[in-house]
Amino acid sequence: MSLRSVFNLVAKKAAYAAGTPWTFLAAVSIVVLWALSGPVFKFNDTWQLVINTGTTIITFLMVFLIQHSQNADAAAVQIKLDELIRATAEANNELLDLEELDEERLEEIRRDYERMAREAGDALDRVRASCHAAHRGGDRPT
Q1: What is the number of other CB atoms lying within 10 angstroms of the CB of residue 83?
Q2: What string of DSSP letters covers 82-105?
Q3: Cα(first)–Cα(last) distance of the chain, in Å?
Q4: What's phi and psi for 71, nearest 5 deg?
Q5: CA–CA separation, 98 and 95 (whole Å)
Q6: Global confidence as pTM
Q7: What are the CA-CA distances from residue 57 to residues 43, 66, 70, 78, 98 (Å)?
Q8: CB under 8 Å to 72, separation ≥6 — which residues?
Q9: For the segment 53-111, what is each residue's pLDDT rounded down to a tens digit?
Q10: What are the backbone dihedrals phi and psi of residue 30, each rounded to the nearest 5 degrees, phi first?
Q11: What is the DSSP letter of 16?
């Protein structure tokens, strides 16, 4: 088994475990126990260092797990979207490689889609107004 496969397996299991209520309850319990132990250790620097070091290490490692999960999820979503675009006859196939385009071209495409959205909204408003006018006049829209 390759290092990549092992990391992928461990990262998925750790990310899943980190998102469970039991893990959250365990984290809260650790913080509560740490806080309750403060008077025993007279709230000294070592007592504070324990929680600071522990949370820093966990946060540092979680950044990599979250990034790995996010990369995998984003790649899967991108592939699914690419397949939907590819399978739609009228689709703009330039969108299949959208993430590879420069910012200027992305902005042009975004403006085109905003214009199409406005036009679709305007057409919908006209249809609604027409139906509303027909309904007030006693006619039934067809």
Answers
A1: 11
A2: HHHHHH-TTS-GGGGGGGGS-HHH
A3: 64
A4: -60, -45
A5: 5
A6: 0.61
A7: 21, 14, 20, 32, 37
A8: 8
A9: 999 999 999 999 999 999 989 989 988 988 888 888 788 887 888 888 889 999 999 99
A10: -65, -45
A11: H
Place of tokens 């709230």: 43
Looking at the chain, how many residues does it have? 142
Nearest to 67 by CA among 55, 79, 57, 59: 59
Q: Which residue has the tokens 């959250």?
A: 24
67: closest CA among 29, 113, 11? 11
Residues 6+ apart with CB under 8 A from 69: 11, 12, 15
| Cβ(83)–Cβ(26) below 8 Å | no
